[in-house]
Predict the structure.
Amino acid sequence: MEGMTILRGRVWKFGDNISTDHIIPGRYYHLRSNLPELAKHVMEDADPEFPKKVKPGDFIVAGKNFGMGSSREHAAIVIKLANVSAVIAKSFARIFFRNAINNGLPVIIADTDKIDDGDELEVDLEKGVIRNLTKNIEIKIQPLPKVMLDILKEGGIVEYIKKYSRLPVTE
Amino acid sequence: MATMAEKIFSWKLGRDVEPGEFVVAPVDISYFQDGTGPLGIRRFNEFSDKVADPRKVHFFIDHASPSPRKELSNDHRFIREFARRMGTYLHEYGEGISHQIMVEEFAKPGDIIVGADSHTCTLGALAAFATGVGSTDAAIAMSEGGLWFRIPESYRIEVSGELEKGVYSKDLILYIIGKLGADGATYKSAEFHGEAISKLSQEARFTISNMAIEMGAKVGLIPTDDETFRYLKSIRGDQEFLNVVPDEDASYEKTFYFDAKNIPPGVAAPHNVDNWKPIDEVAGTPINQVYIGTCTNGRIEDFRIAAQILKGRKKHRDVTLIIAPASKRVYIQAVTEGLIKIFIEAGGVVLPPGCGPCVGIHAGVPADNEVVLSTQNRNFKGRMGNPSAEIYLASPATAAASALKGVITDPREYL
Ligand code: SF4
């Protein structure tokens, strides 16, 4: 997560219950072994403009239950490949949340009511705060459990295991 | 003091566990399907070259089965080569859906199981702590024989009474999801209890646990009882199985009460599983396709219910009727009982055991703006391969009755 503690970018705002089928539709199933090609369809069923217009550093901001549905890890991967700096939502579906962390994609739980499409954000992961530069307000981030922060810091679970040769929980 | 989830982890770790605790626990089985397996194998190759125990690992080629295109054929070959090299189980075309084969042959009460497929929670109806994970987590379990978990808090869902005629476990779980919402049990262990649950056959119970994920739950557990053991012994012969029930004084974060007699046949209307509507409200809606099958409702009992309604009748002219058995065992049984003949004579198309049109990869993709009524578990936009299609979810009885009339139909008209 080096150089990642302060993230800055523009907001793409979505609603509640964005499913893994919105993020990467099942009809592109055959592209799953071709990730760069698959990534060209990221979020297509939520907003067909998104894959064409998303810029590196942009944020995906949503309501509750982001990533509900299937276990397809490809959903987290295509968002990462689009160089989205973080997904911010009121809540996340469990499997997506874990997949995102495992792939080093920051997932941030916060009240997103005061963030609108096109807003400019600065996210300070260390301090646990989102600064909405457009609206000139600060929003608090719900802190992540230590084990997840540890994985995120290494850039994902595979990197973590390679570095420490063990799973990220010690009893 | 312990809920089912806490009990299973306590047994495995040899000490008491608390909700909220992070643990590394041994995994009895890890499995992959053809959509998650290739990524899982690639991830595995990044950090490991040894499978902890190949007899605890399964690969299923069930989603795009047989393959509709060359990219997927290549993925299938990639899976086959890896499974053979490592000596894991490999379940081929025609054998059926991962979760169904797991409940028939492999999952046991008290096991900890992870599957790289969200409906792994189906196995919870056999009191296995079975949960869906991503490819990387399943790859870690395959390599290390264990995985890290957070012990979930438990919700108790208590259903009293008995379902009325024409109302099935699918109607019950759609109703519960409608009340709790698509994120109503996020992260929790959902435990199902009460007279209405214990009166259900084991097959009907799988439908309940299968859909626990649709309210966000990590697992959907049902305590073992005589019916669980009857089912297991009917398929696997005389073996000893663990009895997994919660302690009487187990503590639950929340308890929800439902009365089965208040629940009518229902559907989940487009585009969310928690968009529950009683059948009265949607009856008469024209439909273009009916699908009976999937890991939710592709079992022999589901086929018997559908066949009872379809027998000696013809589907409506404007409806496509597709049927796919959840496993080879279901298929053979359905052939033996003459159910497949009934489906074919009614105008249905029978696909090989597998996921069929559920996730929109092949066979049965709806046309633009078409309306589908399916016995599957998800109706998200684009789910069946066309984002402009609308999907209603219902029981096999409602599906069969609706196929006859060409509009959504209350199955009680035919019972
Ligand atoms: S039948 Fe549908 S829900 Fe079940 S495993 Fe297959 S694609 Fe997933």
Notes: The longest helix of chain B spans residues 70-86.
